[in-house]
Design brief:
Blueprint (H helix, E strand, L loop, with lengths): L1 E3 L15 E7 L3 H11 L11 H9 L4 E12 L2 E10 L20 H20 L3 E3 L6 E2 L2 H16 L1 H10 L3 H11 L5 H11 L5 H20 L10 H6 L5 H16 L3 H10 L1 H8 L4 H14 L4 H9 L3 H12 L4
Helix pairs in contact: 1-2, 3-4, 5-6, 5-7, 6-8, 7-8, 8-10, 10-13, 12-13
């Protein structure tokens, strides 16, 4: 079984001041979302805000807003998609853990170097569109030769430094070290121990750590779902909670992972999604940047029992709203 690696490419917020294709505000109900758009001070077609921090502060000053996170994605027809995640007071919230403070938790230099080499290979593969991967061993092995060779080195080093890697993933004070360790943890021989650490890393305060932890844990979850005899079980709870995050990468990684659970008939995961994250999935499925909307649309369809052929036909015909409205009625969802 093979799947695609999701690569995030964020647009620069300053260089050249690229223009906005459109703005997506998520995590807030309509009245608050409209006030957020006004506070941004920009609209479709304008240059991106000069200061990300100042724009976020203006949004967080609004009544009813707890936190805001803004990021730009390149590109939609040559323009940036500006995503604005909002945590609304009293709304769904993705709880993060405090930042670790263990200065002694570190990684050997060869581990850091091997990860940097893999990141370089992955960047080239992303540019070439060669992102197919095999998760059957509980971690990613890509078809791209340069990436695969680099990942095989990760396998060997994760076995050699397993204890240090697992400790650093959740305890290292340095965020970059935690991010590298989180990805490496997926290659650790003891998948159960790695899964326990990665569940904690999913709630790290740094988005890069969470992103790498989600990718690593997805591989272990795939192994658990496809080889029940392994005795592994990766609880989907924190993947579900990530769908309520105000950070785009959290949501994108979570929906990819949860699709595996639903496709393989995990009723527990499906029930948790219905209980905790349907509004988040519906707003994602309505995003105008279609590559980001499609995974949520397909996941909602699978949860609602819609045949894949019907989902694909409606999507191709530009009729996704018809399907989404039907699913909302089915679940009596009001947001």
């Amino acid at each position: 079984m093979r799947a695609a690696v999701l690569g995030l490419v964020l647009a620069g917020m300053a260089a050249g001041q690229p223009r906005i294709g459109w703005i997506e505000v998520f995590g807030a109900r309509r009245p608050v979302a409209e006030r957020v758009r006004k506070a941004l001070g920009v609209k479709d077609g304008d240059p991106l805000p000069k200061s990300k921090g100042e724009a976020e502060e203006r949004i967080e000053a609004l009544d009813g807003v707890v936190r805001a996170h803004m990021e730009a994605w390149c590109c939609e027809q040559g323009r940036a998609v500006l995503y604005v995640g909002v945590e609304e007071r009293g709304g769904a919230r993705f709880e993060l853990r405090p930042a670790p403070r263990d200065e002694a938790a570190s990684l050997p230099e060869e581990v850091m170097t091997a990860y940097a080499d893999f990141a370089d290979a992955l960047a080239r593969a992303t540019a070439e569109g060669d992102l197919e991967e095999d998760l059957s061993r509980g971690h990613s092995l890509m078809r791209n030769i340069a990436c695969r060779v680099a990942q095989q080195r990760l396998e060997a080093l994760a076995e050699l430094h397993e204890a240090a890697v697992l400790r650093a993933a959740t305890e290292a004070e340095d965020p970059e070290t935690r991010a590298v360790a989180a990805y490496f943890a997926g290659y650790a021989p003891d998948k159960a121990a790695a899964a326990n650490r990665l569940q904690l890393a999913l709630r790290d305060p740094e988005p890069a750590v969470r992103r790498n932890a989600a990718r690593a844990l997805k591989g272990i979850a795939y192994l658990a779902l496809t080889r029940r005899e392994s005795g592994l079980r990766v609880q989907p709870t924190w993947f579900v909670e990530m769908l309520n995050s105000i950070v785009l990468s959290d949501r994108l990684e979570a929906v990819q992972a949860l699709a595996m659970y639903v496709e393989r008939g995990d009723e527990g995961a499906a029930a948790q999604i219905r209980e905790r994250a349907l509004p988040a999935l519906f707003e994602m499925a309505r995003w105008r940047h279609l590559p980001h909307a499609l995974p949520a649309y397909l996941l909602l369809g699978a949860l609602g029992g819609v045949a894949p052929e019907e989902l694909e036909k409606a999507w191709a015909a530009g009729e996704r709203e018809r399907v989404l409205a039907r699913l909302e009625k089915q679940w009596r969802l009001s947001r």
